[in-house]
Amino acid sequence: MTNVYDILEARGYIEQSSNTEEVKKQLGEGPVTFYIGFDPTADSLHVGHFIQIMVMMHMQQAGHRPIAILGGATAMIGDPSGRTDMRKMLTLEQLQHNVDCFREQFKRFLSFEGKNGLIMVDNKEWLLDLKYIEFIREYGRHFSVNRMLTADCYKTRLEKGLTFLEFNYMLMQSYDFLELYRRYGCLLQLGGSDQWSNILAGADLIRRAEGAPANALTFSLLTTASGKKMGKTESGAVWIDPTKTSPYEFFQYWRNIDDADVQKCLKLLTFLPLDEIAQLTQEGINPNIAKEKLAYEATALVHGKNEADKALTAARALFAGGDTSENIPSTELAALALGEGFEILKIMQIAGIISGTSEGRRLIKEGGAYLNNERITAHDQIVTPADFTDGKILLRKGKKVYHQIILK
Question: Can you spell out the DSSP letters for 238-270?
Fold first, then answer.
């Protein structure tokens, strides 16, 4: 039987391990209970979270038991990792709404049934009732301030000012790990590489407080070959929620990544066998074949095969100049509001393909804006009812971004 550690390593997930031999032994000898934390700072998971979900799926398929902590309490403080400023403070109502959204989205990816069914908990259950003096006396002695200040999650905040509120985050996350060990026998925490310091501190707390062999394992963040973080578009994050990022937009994001990133993303974001990925990405093969396969497989995992089929059909039809009206992103506009016409920049803003008029003017000047597949040459061009065919117009930004406006 293949050790899941070897699978994760071969596919390029693993970044660091607190004790590689011990972790491999634990994962190879029997079911291990592990956890990953998700702070609900938005009402949807995004592509960055999806890497972590993929790891959880690999682990669960290998027989290990996943725990997802939805950080209703830790999100009240805000993780300073990778930040140059404080995170926005959310209300209890906002956090609860976000937790509820996360719970529903997890149902798409992981099984809740059987001995290794997903356990989902909110750390509000134990963190909100902690008594500060008792907590600091019992656990604060295990944390060295000097050592904490060397952690990457704090070093980047020291220049602009690290608040005492954020300084507590490592203690809170470490206590989460300890609580899960005591409740479920959890001995392994996983997370992105930016969480290394926090995860290592939790494993160390369990070893000090309980003498148990807890470990930390982090995996690579989703970045391009040049080191730029993936999962961001000009309009914002690539979300799992189809109302925030449509299945077609999700498909197109992966269809249009750089050639250098295709093999890595196929390994991380699909379950395709490694030998098939090697064949798809070998020298001399058109990279667009691999990109289309990546986009289809990732969309099918997140949104289902039916939506992936529709996105694939729409993408191919756009390339061939065919009808795609049912599948590409669209915005409805009241015919009465259109009146005798709108300036093209206003229509483009309504569609969300530009953030403002300055971007729109620049795009038109550079020849990258199209209306019904005709290049737009003037920023004061007026879109009138005569431009609509069957109540629709098609806007295009560059070669990749399409959006239609539908009159209602």
Answer: -BSSTTTS-HHHHHHHHHTS-GGGHHHHHHHH-
Residue after which a domain boundary falls, among 266, 291, 320: 320
What's the pLDDT at 320? Answer: 54
Q: What is the predicted pLDDT for the residue at 84?
A: 44
Mean pLDDT score of the chain: 85
**Bridging pattern class, strands 215-219 and 14-17:** antiparallel
- Strand (E) or helix (H) holding 396: strand 392-397
Identify whether the C-beta of residue 81 lies closer than 8 Å to the C-beta of residue 30: no
Q: Which domain holds residue 348?
A: 330-407
Is residue 87 scored above 60 in pLDDT?
no
Contact 291, 260 (CB under 8 A): no
pLDDT at 360 over 90: no
pLDDT grade, residue 83 (50/70/90)?
very low
- Dihedral sign of CA atoms 297, 303, 306, 310 in order: negative
- Please indicate, yes or no, if residue 258 is contained in any of the structural domains: yes
- Residue at 384: amino acid letter: T
Of 298, 320, 342, the position where a domain reaches its end is: 320
Distances (CA, A) of 108 to 69, 222, 327: 17, 21, 22
Contact (Cβ atoms closer than 8 angstroms) between residue 387 and residue 373: no
Look up residue 242 and give its amino acid.
Answer: P
More confident residue, 160 or 320: 160
Task: Please report the pLDDT score of residue 407 as a whole number.
Answer: 77
Give the span between the Cα atoms of 314 and 312, in whole angstroms.
Answer: 5
List the end-to-end C-alpha distance of the chain, in Å, as a whole number.
58
CB under 8 Å to 64, separation ≥6 — which residues? 4, 27, 31, 32, 33, 34, 116
Lowest mean pLDDT among 81-95, 223-237, 307-321, 364-378: 81-95
Residues 246 and 265 in one domain: yes
pTM: 0.78
Let me know: does 262 contact 253? Beta carbons within 8 Å: no
* 311 in Cβ contact with 294 (< 8 Å): no
